[in-house]
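Good morning,

Both structures are done.
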Amino acid sequence: MPIPKKIHYCWLSGDPLPEDLQKCLRTWQAKMPDYELVLWDKNKFAVDSVPYVAEACRVKKWAFAADYIRLHALHAEGGIYLDSDVVVCKSFDNFLNYGFFSALEYVPNVAEKRATRRLLNADGSLKKEGIYMVPGLGIQAAIMGAQKGHPYLRDCLSWYEKQHFILPDGSYNTKLIAPTIYAAMAIKYGFRFVRETQYLAENMVILAPNILASNSYKLLSQDTYAVHVCQGSWLTKNPLLSYLRRSNLLRKILGKMPLLSIDEIIQGDFRQGQQ
């Protein structure tokens, strides 16, 4: 049974969707006009049904609540999940015959600076068992698709269902982020931390990081199907801090990679630069 032509997305705050994100959604409709868009908000999902989600919503940490809801949406209905700041460059029709698909999330400067290789064996497997942050590497959480009821999704959901977002000391459970958790749950299916397409058990595929890409000139190519723009709305609600975080001048000073804007990605500037 192929993955159904549904695109799920979350918007939990109740605020109007900003124009930049509306631009992203329009690329979904332009590239995949025959796909149904399914909004997951507080009317669609009972946020109080899962303690982790309820607690994240209570303190308005919407992105962390969505880490569970996206898994639930795919497990319950099947389809494709996209963060609202994803630009689609090509139709996903080629991926619909898999049981589950996503891509390796690769942040080159983080992986290089944090000496990620020290945590891995030569084949990309972890040297130690358990859930470990592998700096710069994980499974792309912003773009994924699955058949209804896929067992990998059930594994991921079960992890969250044992967690609390607000810890006993009042701090938030943010140390392990979704790409790390999703990667840890995929290890039993054969996942390794390598920058190549991997075909796993249960008809899963983890694509190379340039196929479903994070926002990086080093990753984007003619082969890119979608780009997570990495607006990072979960990091701060302060407009000035948000602007500074995305300032390429400041990123250059700090030794970080420049980010493309939504408009640059939509216009295909990264492809033009490679010609």
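Second structure follows.
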Amino acid sequence: MLLTSYRLGHLTLPNRLVMAPMTRARAVDGKPTAETATYYAQRATAGLIVTEGVHPNAVGQAGPSMPGIHTDEQVAAWRGVTDAVHANGGRIFAQLMHGGRIGHVEVAGHHPVGPSAVAAGTEVFTPAGAAPAPVPRALRTAEVAEQVQAFADAARRAVDAGFDGVELHGANGYLIQQFLSSSANQRTDGYGGSVTGRIRFAVEAVEAAAGAIGPERVGIRLSPGGEIQGIVEEDVPVLYGELLKALPDIAYVHLVATVDDEVLMGLRKAWPTAFILNPGGQIGPRESTREQGERWLANGADLISYGRAYIANPDLVERFRLGLPLVSADRETYFQVPRGLIDYPSYQH
């Protein structure tokens, strides 16, 4: 089933493999480079590519050498990427990633903001190396709308840059999940407290993006119960069940397998449109396999996303099609080094 076609919103995908978003940290002055365009174009046989996290505004930048999409210059640079992918027959969404409390003034020139003045209790990357995550400035109620609007503005800019759509990053401990979290979100206004309050920011951000570019061009990535970057979530099945009920009927939800199969299956049944599953769970050392993907398709997923497997296997679709072995990526070249981006070859017969 992985190699069969699928209709996703306004797109026809030639297969059910999705290249998952992965931070690669090689932007220059907030802009993707010619190598970025080559990197994604090499992987254009994927049914869908979702880019690395792209900050929707300046305060949302989570780490050094990460790209944005909030200036005209950034839009122009991304157009070179989307043109390259489309020229190779591919389809590509931009992942809109607001770091929230995961950030540093030395990275973005702005002090990080979050739902509450609660530090992540972990380290963040800065130009000088790892540093303790700072205590963010809690957003005032009136300011929350500005961060919601940033997702709508970035979605419009993404379409202007030639992207086929956007995915909002609601996983891995960044701003959207910070609002969902009972540890990061200690607000007492309408954006905190109850489940209804904690899901409100995510719903408003998705509605804003969908209103800007159309719901068929919008997805959201979630990691239910994922304990990363200081995140704790309570009543996960209820929290995410209510979130999925409150979201508009966008193109897809993209779930990371960070909770047990029973909960994931319940969420699959609750969601009316495309359901993307990433079987890899929290960040770890092993690439997901074709067998894992086929198992989840049999269990009701529509598309399967692969992250680490795509780093070293630009021709992952053909490797799965022909039963060829996969190459493991060098973890030392994941971020901010010259090697490890475009120098993994396709399989040599």
